[in-house]
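Hello Y.,

Per our agreement to keep a running log of every chain we model this quarter, I'm adding this entry. I've kept the format consistent with earlier entries: sequence first, then predicted structure.
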Amino acid sequence: MKTKSRQPSLILASRSPRRQLLLKQIGFRFVVRPSSVVERFFPHESPAHNVRRLALEKARDVAGRTKQGIVVGADTIVVLGKRVLGKPKSKQEARKMLASLSRKWHSVFTGLALVDAASGRSMSDVVHTKVRFREITKDEVAAYVASGSPLDKAGAYGIQDDYGAVFVEEVRGCFYNVVGFPLSRFLVSFSAFAGEPIDQLVDH
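Predicted structure for the entry above:
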């Protein structure tokens, strides 16, 4: 028997189809109101601080245009050594990014923020996952880039893609964080923020 949840009104400040799909996967109902915040990465801030700040800026931007509901903001980056790998601007840049990840560990950081539109109350967090690629060939890279999929993803890959999945040899930390939204951390944080038990938040 399906039980109705006591879910507060949720607003996702993101156009990301992956984040929308993951929220639906755990039974959340929400509306999408994309943020107009320009994503600026500041070199003097750590990767964790950058994504946490951006997630909160996005959530506050949408909350400022909303009377009520809880707004969720998120931002994900890929870091290789000291280099931040954002979304590639061209196929050539995507090929270079993927080649640089071959046989290496890299980090995926996702900032997560919640803002109550009515009161302005907020919280933010960051999740860090380490990922290792196996050795990938030039032909594999070329085939993946030709599909067009890498062009809208930080680090030029999606672990949920056919090719992206088989490039990954090992994951240490939250898998869904690499997809772009750390489900477990979100659910625990949202439960505490909304003051509702987890089992009452999702349809089951």
